[in-house]
């Protein structure tokens, strides 16, 4: 173990930093302005979702986003599961019954029946083609995994720090930035394609979605300010939950596992030392 | 090595083995648990509410709860009397008709439609006792779903259910509280 | 004590079994009394870590297979069903996905160890070549496993990699159609990848048995690169190596757990959370990190066929190391020149990995070409010449002497 370990680390870091210095700000394929890194309650090793925030975010999804965006993989019952918005089973049954789910009656005729907790959120359009046709040729993406499906280049050396700081919130940062990133009119000289809208944080700046939210559009009954900035955070947090409903449990078990492994490694280290003392 | 060092060494080895053992056992938990019904299956097995109004006098209807067939039998007065007019002790699986229905709703028989012999679905309104006949091995059930003849050892099982109103039952839980 | 201890079961049943199927003796000779060089350092733990990770991948893979549906319209949703509804499904999926990364990390460290200490040299050539075969099997398995998710990156990675075979003159297009089972990547492709992804890990397990067998025939290499000469040069595998390996395995699991529980999507690509869309290509197609160096080599050659050849050659050339390296000295400890070139090789390999994630334009291409040249030059030019011209340091007389100093 003489000189290899420090050498190995040195070599790798040198490689990385040399490259990082040589090619610092080379143009990306599609220019993307990094969104501001916001503070999230669910970030870090002890992160948890804020139930009130998730409930506000759900309200925004329900009243605004769901007009165009499906959330096919999320069920009403998920709203009552631990680590989520914290609705009760009764509230969930009530929420579900306010939706209409496509189904067949006993004669095989298509009907719309009230939702049950086991049902998934119904999509606003019957299929992909209809979604495209109703939205100028671009289907609004499903929101079930959206917070995991969106990211941005962290760049060197931040992606190394992220390993330590556990930064996994690229998705919510991006989503919140998109919601607040619309600018009308676009900056001077920018050619906006017809039907598109200028957004600071969307790669290429021309997004098909019109600005979805304006201040006061969704009523909050817990006194939280009804600003677009607040909406952007709440809906981004809700979408993070939709993508990672077991985040709280995962981090909790993670803490227990890592403590356990540190104890086990320590015991094994001293056992090794004891066993090898006979030979040294 | 002195005996004190021996004990210290042994303690270290035992502690290490014990901690490793705990870790090994803990790993088994998710591996075994993942085979239990997942959340969507459990949700799909939630109680179902059945409206009894469309079921005519004498009609047997088949619905599904937790992927099991459930027979709902709207018994006529004659069928109820036939079920009551029996020497209970002579039955292979003794049970009174009252034990198999809800008080005040004796015209309604709700049973799981799986033959207690080897699991086939018996045929309704067949067999000499006016109940069910299982074509697989010839078991015969009466109008209270009790086994009368054939190899089945037990009466048709009763699912948990309750009347949440005079014309609605909820199959899947005994509680009568409204939805 | 002369030679390793032999298996003497006290238990009557074990004695009875031993006469009929001497598996107890085999296990004892291979993993208990097996003479292990006493100077092995922690870089030697990674073989054991690899076996452990193979077990982890097989077990998590089998339980995931209980819930996965290999059909193009249902695959993505079945994976999300595992994440959301299956009890501890999220844990099993993240363990399997990040386990693949841990598996490759351990494999690369294991290989670099072999390159540094000359473990590929005579008489361990077959051991080394079995290792190269294992690497190829791992690459194939990992690629097919990633396709199963049927996200955007799964689909387009499958399209790009299967299209590589069209570079073969004449039969290339037929081979690609044969691989696809259709006119593009589709349901037949997904199904056969599922079948093969389930099969190959067991082929890997079989080759691992051969690999360990070949190892036990020659005995392990060690940091000094000289063979054990007497019993004082070795220690029995159990408890010495067992407990040392156990310690680093537990520490390695801390790293594994860090990924699984805290940063499970750090090594992945966000686009794979978008269901596959054959009509829309993502803005960049990037493989997982463990394929990036090879991806960079492929893209640095401007010709399609030559690029594909370079890709396969970059792995195949490893198999020839025992003969390309002409030096009589094994361990880089005693090869001051080789050591420097080795570290440059590490820098080139890591550098190629980073470059593989960048768009193939401008300075990225220039540097990739420089590193690719060095990669092949290391094997084809440097290794053969060093054996002739390098002045090596004097070797110690024995392993015990190198460990204990003159008081041996």
Q: In a nutshell, what does this entry contain?
A:
The complex is a heterotrimer of chains A (280), B (179) and C (408). Chain A is mainly alpha-helical and 280 residues long.
Task: Report on this structure.
The complex is a heterotrimer of chains A (280), B (179) and C (408). Chain A has 280 residues and is mainly alpha-helical. Helices cover 42% and strands 5% of the residues of chain A. Chain A has helices at 4-22, 51-63, 89-97, 128-134, 146-149, 158-165, 170-180, 228-243, 247-277, and strands at 100-104, 110-114, 197-198, 206-207. Chain A starts with a helix and ends with a helix. By secondary structure, chain B is of the alpha+beta class. Chain B has helices spanning 3-33, 39-44, 77-84, and strands at 48-51, 60-65, 68-74, 108-112, 123-124, 130-133, 140-142, 147-149, 161-165, 168-171. In chain B, the strands form 3 sheets. Chain B has a 4-stranded antiparallel β-sheet with strand order 5-6-7-8, with no helix packed on it. The mean pLDDT of chain B is 93. Chain C has 408 residues and is mainly α. Chain C contains 16 helices and 2 strands. Chain C has helices at residues 12-20, 23-31, 46-65, 75-84, 89-117, 125-148, 152-163, 172-180, 187-218, 237-262, 292-300, 304-316, 321-324, 336-356, 363-389, 399-404, and strands at residues 35-37, 234-236. In chain C, strands 1-2 form a two-stranded antiparallel ribbon. In chain C, helix 3 runs antiparallel to helix 5 (89-117). Chain C is globular. The relative contact order of chain C is 0.13. The chains are: A mainly alpha (280), B alpha+beta (179), C mainly alpha (408). Chains in contact: A-B, A-C, B-C. Chains B and C meet through helix 1 and helix 2 of B and helix 5 of C.
